Amino acid sequence: MEQHQRPLGRPRSEDARLAVLRAVDDMLVAEGYAAMTMKGIAERAKVGRQTVYRWWSSKAEILLEASAADAARELTVTPGVDAESDVTAFLTALRDFLTRSDAGLAYRALLGEAQHDDRVAELLRGTDVLGDAARACIAGVRARGALAGVPEAGADLLVAELVGPVLFQTLVTGRAAEPEELSGMARRFLAR
Amino acid sequence: MEQHQRPLGRPRSEDARLAVLRAVDDMLVAEGYAAMTMKGIAERAKVGRQTVYRWWSSKAEILLEASAADAARELTVTPGVDAESDVTAFLTALRDFLTRSDAGLAYRALLGEAQHDDRVAELLRGTDVLGDAARACIAGVRARGALAGVPEAGADLLVAELVGPVLFQTLVTGRAAEPEELSGMARRFLAR
DNA sequence: TATATTCGAGACAAGCTGTATCGTAATGAT
DNA sequence: ATCATTACGATACAGCTTGTCTCGAATATA
């Protein structure tokens, strides 16, 4: 009866996969998203061009795979002394992610591409790092008794009000929020 | 002494200029930003390719010129009965702009491009339609006596907290805010 | 008339795209 | 051991866009 637990033929090369992910990571920082090409990625990874196209259909897809894990890790905040400090810590992590981190640079590039490519938009909604991290933060402070008067129903709205201001500052003004601004946002967020 | 009030040589063709702006507007809706090319724009406008490059250096620049005036107009809100209704009206206009309007589609494409092209980022900050409109809204409600306890100093922060949530919903979740959500945002914004 | 600048049109080299094909390598089935 | 199947790196290929350059013609000023 033996069904193939492994598919037929030569197995996918893990070396090639990692080389491609690595190349994309490096090139994003070194040359920027716009200058990155599928051809350049293959050459930098020392990999056949067809091998890239076989497993990914766009540079956005590669970049997402290369940065999603880092993004989630950088946005995970360990609980502190109280709800307000937790929210402040999350907003600080969010600011650092969006303005300083390589994974954040990748996320911004992907979010940008999503604005004029529906396939990338879908892709990005499949792994909503920002939303997931924000929801985790909100669940944490709820477990502490904060936001008691706020119904669970409007969870998406809460996420938007928590993440939106910092996202706006990064995306449109290009300015990183100051610590006092972040703690102010956290205080007002919890005082609703 | 007669200094040239008009520069020497054949003057720029206004017909060609308008034809290019028109072509970009049409193509954005018909084919999307990604499919738009400088070559395609010139052909659609029935204009020489060099003529396009002579006056604009990228499709982003053309698109900004083609949509900035519409954007500013769509984000201008006439004062209503009180501060809260004014803010709600602004947020509603912002939502409609970002999710339904052609000019908003252009703005999202430009903001997206700005995330991986520094020249577009600079360009966009030169004419900050979202920020200007938000500041106008805030100045309006301040003239009504609202936000009295909030110092003028943190104006940028106010703009971010006003615009951020709706921008987040549009850009990352792709969802248009409900009217109750918008009025809730307006109420909380004024209650700080 | 002479000069200067723009116009539409198109040539041109360079680069990327996505697919196809080559011979080779690695794995499972018989 | 041999075969079938799939992935591998490498490369060729047509099609497209890019940005620059050139051409003759048009339209303005001096």
Automatic annotation (TrEMBL), chains A, B:
<dbReference type="InterPro" id="IPR011075">
    <property type="entry name" value="TetR_C"/>
</dbReference>
<keyword id="KW-0804">Transcription</keyword>
<dbReference type="Pfam" id="PF16859">
    <property type="entry name" value="TetR_C_11"/>
</dbReference>
<keyword id="KW-0805">Transcription regulation</keyword>
<protein>
    <submittedName>
        <fullName>TetR/AcrR family transcriptional regulator</fullName>
    </submittedName>
</protein>
<feature type="domain" description="HTH tetR-type">
    <location>
        <begin position="14"/>
        <end position="74"/>
    </location>
</feature>
<feature type="DNA-binding region" description="H-T-H motif">
    <location>
        <begin position="37"/>
        <end position="56"/>
    </location>
</feature>
<dbReference type="Pfam" id="PF00440">
    <property type="entry name" value="TetR_N"/>
</dbReference>
<dbReference type="InterPro" id="IPR050109">
    <property type="entry name" value="HTH-type_TetR-like_transc_reg"/>
</dbReference>
<dbReference type="InterPro" id="IPR009057">
    <property type="entry name" value="Homeodomain-like_sf"/>
</dbReference>
<dbReference type="InterPro" id="IPR001647">
    <property type="entry name" value="HTH_TetR"/>
</dbReference>
<keyword id="KW-0238">DNA-binding</keyword>
<dbReference type="InterPro" id="IPR036271">
    <property type="entry name" value="Tet_transcr_reg_TetR-rel_C_sf"/>
</dbReference>
